[in-house]
Amino acid sequence: MSTTTEAAAWPRATATLNEDGTAQVSIGGTVTEVAAGDVDEARAQVVAIVAARAEQLGRPLHVLTRDPAGEWPLIIHADQTVTEDDSREARPQAP
Question: Would 1 be classed as within a structural domain?
């Protein structure tokens, strides 16, 4: 399989992380539930789930993440590298 470093718009991926360590990851309409000890552990599991799909597709994925601190557009690579998605603006929660 060939690989590329360019993230494509499909499949659409979102992740919602909750303070209690639960999370929901949706990739192309398929939802995966996460149950971790806290939001940081959930975040690591979310990255692993999205990275596994990126590896299957041979390219990074755009992911819109929502957590208690706000909304964060990211790009997640197959090697679990996470970078900011500069094509969308982050929206931190207001203080």
Answer: no
